[in-house]
Amino acid sequence: MNVLIFGPPGSGKTTHSKRMLEKYGLFYISSGDIIRNEIANQTELGKEMNKFLSKGDLIPDSVVNVLVLGKLRRVRNDFIMDGYPRSAEQVLALENYLYDHGIKLDLALDIFIPKNVSIERISGRRICSKCGAVYHVKYNPPKTPGRCDICGAELIQREDDKPQIVAKRYDIYSKNMSPIIKFYRKQGIYVKIKGDGGVDDVWERIRPLTDFIHNREEKRKEHEL
User: Fold this and answer.
1) Three-class SS state of 28
2) pLDDT of 79 over the 80 cut
3) CA distance 5 to 141
4) What architecture is domain 3-224?
5) In the chain, where are the structural domains located?
6) Contact 20, 80 (CB under 8 A)
């Protein structure tokens, strides 16, 4: 099955994407991972994108489209796409690509959390400056405050994880996603899931839906053989 997964910052969409990968054997396409890889490698494109992210602004659609659709071209089918599309232009680019290649989407899953929850979850995140291990001051604190349990290096807060930046990201996300949600609702594949509560609680809201779609697609493939 082919799935789009949405959600504001801190909604847990990446966590649940990975659960779906393990359960259904899908390919994972994350716009965030692709972008962070460019930034980590300090490519010229990565440096330009980092300027936008550090201010809480969106990276230009033309850049994101090239990066994400380039990855999709190598995957083709049975994928879950995390964090894309996030604008009308990105939707258009994706839909044109899918149409040209005879690919259909089965689900547009929206994991929703309110703004105050988003800010709390993201602004409490701390990352090891050396090994990249991730902590949270409330939900997953290190044994020694400010120090990584693994290598002992200093924990830092990313610039785009600061409360004011998270609030701005949430507002931009909500504004841009409104027409996208309407589009996929008209397509009949949009489903909204509450993202509050523990990880297992949210997964139990998602799993029956994805099980149903996965089993339906497996039966369809059997009939086509």
Assistant:
1) strand
2) yes
3) 28
4) 3-Layer(aba) Sandwich (3.40)
5) 3-224
6) yes
